[in-house]
Design goal:
Layout: E1 2-8, H1 15-25, E2 31-37, H2 44-49, E3 54-57, H3 64-73, E4 79-82, H4 94-99, E5 106-110, H5 123-137, E6 149-152, H6 153-156, H7 169-179, E7 184-188, H8 202-220, H9 223-248, H10 253-278
Parallel strand pairs: 1-2, 1-4, 2-3, 5-7
Antiparallel strand pairs: 4-6, 5-6
Helix pairs in contact: 5-8, 7-8, 9-10
Length: 279
């Protein structure tokens, strides 16, 4: 038994087709489909109401993550699948994800298949975010923020307090599962050009993603963030100190302050790590 949660905001052009495809592909399973209309101003709700699915409507736009959490809270089953309502994810790939659902805590549809339509201007930022996430989480993550994945309600609800209400929901849940030792399986899928206009703001959302990655890793593994900063400051301070002492014969306040700051940040990281381990 599986509950499929579809967060939707102004997706009138694609949501009907997505729901129809889900009903067809899931006919051999016991399932429910929950569409969470996140305050759409178009005919999204009207289109969904004509289908044999459950619809929940937010009174106004709260966010992608908030819509997913609403769907999870109202799901009848422990096994949850999320998929976007814009037609960009291949519904026909769902059976492949379900095949391994009993063996992993989360199965992610990784957009690394043979046909992947990601806009060119988004690829450098996506690559940078992936490299940052891979380093901080010490894990190879093929797709950090795929919107097609399966997980269990009892597991994800443990992290509701740190899962954001915006687009960064998927990024956070990926990092959270990896840094807490849960098993994640990536299944390659295709990814198509979405129907309608994207709601992502490249610059603002990109900066938010960076902050989110650092914050999430700090929450679970603070030394991974604090220690590199401490080492860099110490090395810079030491280099300046040696330069001033050897060549200028006069040591200013800057290198001393940098070295002191390095030790302070390092000890702060150690303290944060002790707190995390006692949780």
């Amino acid at each position: 038994m599986i509950s499929v949660v579809i967060p939707a905001y102004n997706e009138e052009e694609a949501i009907g087709t997505v729901v129809d495809e889900l009903i067809e592909i899931l006919k051999e399973w016991s399932y429910e489909i929950i569409v969470v209309d996140d305050g759409s101003t178009d005919n999204t709700a009207k289109v969904v109401q004509e289908k044999r699915v459950k619809i929940i409507q937010h009174p106004h736009n709260i966010g992608y993550g908030a819509a997913i959490k609403t769907g999870i809270k109202n799901a009848a089953n422990d096994l949850i699948m999320i998929i976007d309502g814009d037609g960009s994810y291949p519904v026909k790939a769902i059976p492949e994800l379900l095949k391994v659902a009993d063996h992993y805590d989360m199965i992610v549809g990784s957009r690394t298949g043979g046909e992947v339509k990601i806009q060119l201007y988004r690829r450098p930022a996506k690559r940078f975010l992936s490299m940052l996430a891979n380093y901080l989480s010490e894990t190879k993550i093929p797709d950090l923020n795929s919107g097609m994945r399966i997980f269990r309600r009892k597991e994800v609800e443990k992290f509701f307090n740190i899962l954001p209400n915006k687009f960064s929901f998927t990024t956070t849940i990926t990092l959270t599962y990896h840094t807490t030792g849960l098993l994640v399986k990536y299944v390659p899928i295709n990814y198509y050009k979405r129907v309608g206009q994207s709601k992502i703001r490249p610059v603002k959302d990109g900066l938010n993603f960076i902050m989110l990655i650092v914050r999430t890793i700090t929450y679970f593994n603070p030394l991974k963030v604090f220690l590199p900063i401490s080492i860099v400051l110490f090395l810079i301070g030491l280099a300046v100190l040696l330069y001033q002492g050897i060549f200028l014969r006069n040591i200013a306040d800057l290198p001393v302050m940098l070295i002191i700051a390095a030790f302070q940040i390092g000890f702060l990281g150690l303290l944060a790590d002790l707190i995390v381990r006692k949780r």
